[in-house]
Amino acid sequence: MKRVDVVTGFMTDMVEDHLAQIEDPRIEVRCHFNPFFKVADNLGSCWIVREEMKGDFLILNGDTLVSEDIVRRVQQGADWPIAVTVDVKPGYDSDDMKVSRGENGRLARIGKTLTAEVSNAESIGFLAFRGEGADLFRETVRQTMRTPDGVNHWYLKVIDMIADSGKVGTVSIEGMDWAEVDFLNDIEIATALTDRWVQG
Predict the structure, then answer these.
(1) SS3 52
(2) What is the pTM of this model?
(3) CA-CA distance, 108 to 163, in Å (whole number)?
(4) CB-based burial of residue 76 (10 Å sphere; 0-12 exposed, 13-18 middle, 19+ buried)?
(5) Which end of the chain lies in a sparser environment, N or C, as judged by fewer CB atoms within 10 Å?
(6) The pLDDT of residue 115
(7) Helix or strand holding residue 160 (H, E)
(8) pLDDT of 77 higher than 90
(9) How far apart are CA 84 and CA 43, in angstroms?
(10) Distance between CA atoms of 41 and 44, rounded to whole angstroms?
């Protein structure tokens, strides 16, 4: 059985009620409320579940939808201790979490402020941690949250900090379907996508 840890914040009761209705013998769902969600960025959510980050695990942003095919590719597609799932497109805007990849898919930099010249992929908000990668991420989250500015960081800031270690790579899902729900019009796109996945 797989365990799914969901960190909640905004409208937590609604999210928890919905998750409680899931009846799937393959998974156990646990909810963890982040009481600091109004004042902390998503690094705070990682800090809330830092003790659950032992052994191999995946992180998926709550606004990102991925298919089972993408999950399989990410689980099987890289030997990096930390693997960032990326997509490739002709250009990237200011809201994209841009990635600069080096040789063999190594992640060199990640962040929204990367320039167009160095950006050659975008993170979709889905990461895999294996072996030493889990411990490295958990410890860097702990250290970063102890700094004065820790609550203001995205967890991908931690990934950027770790990048120079050479232990962070990328897995490309170029050409595969995924969606991010940031705005109301994204819901229609996401619904059409998930309907297609369900119909097979």
Answers:
(1) helix
(2) 0.93
(3) 6
(4) exposed
(5) C
(6) 93
(7) helix 155-162
(8) no
(9) 16
(10) 6
